[in-house]
Write a structure and sequence with these properties.
Blueprint (H helix, E strand, L loop, with lengths): L9 E8 L9 H10 L3 E9 L11 H14 L3 E4 L5 H11 L2 E3 L1 H12 L3 H16 L25 H36 L4 E6 L5 H9 L16 E7 L3 E7 L9 H6 L1 H8 L3 E7 L5 H14 L7 E6 L10 E4 L5 E5 L8 H12 L3 E8 L4 H9 L3 E6 L5 E8 H10 L16
Parallel strand pairs: 1-2, 1-3, 3-4, 5-7, 5-8, 8-9, 9-11
Antiparallel strand pairs: 6-7, 10-11, 12-14, 13-14
Helix pairs in contact: 1-4, 4-5, 5-6
Length: 433
């Protein structure tokens, strides 16, 4: 669709130090992103500027240095650790005579490689088309297709206009299909709300260990690797937690510094699992020197998707990589768990996560003794299915005395199921008169 140079697998990376905090990026993260995209880094060009240049982003001397490095190493592509305007990309491609990608383009490329499900592929294509639509200004002046000949003279439609129209049509088509996916997800969420099954979503900076933790907690087999954006497609799994009951765990795409807005918009359906969760497990890599900045970036994205009000439990992961760190739960002044220290890779402290979730989500529990006549065998079987029976014995009259412990919600649901007769079966405690 473009009059552009072909891409490739060998790259020159470019990183510019800028004084403004909002423009600042991390070079090591760019190298990780390039590695995750399967790119071989041939050289890294660094520099510093007080502000980006409108023409090349870098100065003209630095642009010539980048072009020299491309020729010297026979590189296929130049990757900038910054967001470039379409004009800057075009000017850089002209001087370097190879494909130029900015940080957003690189992240979109990784997402395109990782998407597995139909929904994931649609979301990535939508983000790519929105990104591409701003870059259709390049290289079409010589390809204008004007109708000519007797009776056919007129302005016609240029190739650029045709491509813009085609992209707009494709975006509308994808949005319609994603809307259907969103409705299906909403139906699933409504069913879970009716059944009062809470959702716990795992969020965090990319490569913090969310998928490894998810696999450990739910015995799932989600792809987990030491690379950025290993997980792209959302995965839901049911897991039973004592005193809480069934809980839906949702593994989500990792966040990253300056996550492209097109991606946030495209993944709206997926990120709704985060918005509507009862609890967020914010997974943090405590061995990362930039953990505080990563936490702030995750909070920024949560604000952007209106999920910053959802209660959070911080999971301090990778304690095996930190000296003197032990598995434990940290509590606030109100005795609420706020942090759990674990190692998902080695399975250390996972029971503490369940304990913390139980303390955060655990409903009011009901403990009582029921006297069941022999005819109430179905109720007895149901209570055993719910793992609610702590003790039972049969008296001389053949009645079953059952000690049960279950949530107040489950008790109400059970009472409704058995025509509100359960309160008549409760054995008064010795202190009651």
């Amino acid at each position: 669709m473009f009059d552009r140079y072909e891409g490739g697998d060998t790259a020159i990376l470019v990183h510019v130090d800028l004084p403004a905090e909002v423009d600042r990026e991390d070079l090591s993260e760019l190298q990780l992103l390039a590695n995750s995209a399967g790119v071989e880094t041939l050289a890294v060009v660094t520099g510093s500027r007080s502000a980006p240049s409108p023409k090349y982003f870098v100065g003209s001397g630095k642009a010539e240095e980048i072009a020299w490095q491309v020729k010297q190493h026979h590189a296929d592509v130049v990757i900038f650790n910054h967001a470039l305007s379409p004009t800057q990309e075009r000017n850089l491609e002209k001087i370097c005579e190879c494909r130029v990608l900015d940080r957003t383009g690189l992240i979109l490329d990784i997402f395109a490689q990782r998407a597995r499900t139909h929904e994931g592929k649609l979301q990535v294509e939508l983000a790519q088309l929105r990104h591409i639509s701003t870059r259709l200004v390049r290289g079409w002046t010589h390809l204008e297709r004007q109708k000519g000949g007797i009776g056919l003279r007129g302005p016609g439609e240029t190739q650029l206009e045709t491509d813009r129209r085609l992209i707009r049509g494709r975006i509308k088509n994808i949005l319609r299909r994603l809307e259907r996916v969103q409705k299906q997800r909403e139906q699933g969420r409504r069913a879970r709300r009716r059944a009062e099954v809470p959702t716990v979503s795992l969020v965090g900076y990319t490569n913090a260990g969310k998928s490894t933790l998810f696999n450990r907690m739910t015995e799932a087999s989600v792809y987990a690797a030491d690379q950025l954006f290993a997980t792209l497609d959302p995965t839901l799994r049911k897991h039973y937690i004592e005193d809480v009951g069934d809980v839906i765990f949702a593994d989500t795409v990792g966040f990253i510094r300056h996550l492209p807005h097109d991606l946030v918009a495209a993944f709206k359906a997926t990120l709704q699992e985060v918005q509507e969760a009862e609890l967020l497990l914010h997974v943090v890599d405590v061995s990362d020197e930039q953990q505080q900045q990563n936490i702030e970036q995750v909070q920024e994205v949560l604000e952007e998707i209106d999920a910053d009000e959802v209660p959070q439990l911080m999971i301090c992961n990778k304690i095996d990589c930190v000296d003197d760190a032990t598995a434990r739960i940290d509590y606030d002044d109100e005795k609420q768990p706020i942090r759990v220290w674990v190692s998902a890779q080695h399975g250390i402290g996972l029971a503490l996560i369940e304990q913390a979730i139980r303390e955060r989500l655990g409903p009011q529990m009901v403990e009582l003794t029921l006297k069941l006549p022999p005819s109430m065998g179905k109720l007895r079987g149901t209570l055993y299915q719910m793992n609610s029976v702590t003790d039972e014995h049969v008296d001389d009259a053949g009645q079953i005395a059952m000690h049960v412990r279950l949530s107040a919600v489950d008790w109400k649901r059970l009472d409704k199921q058995f025509d509100h007769c359960l309160n008549d079966l409760i054995e008064p405690s010795p202190t009651e008169h």
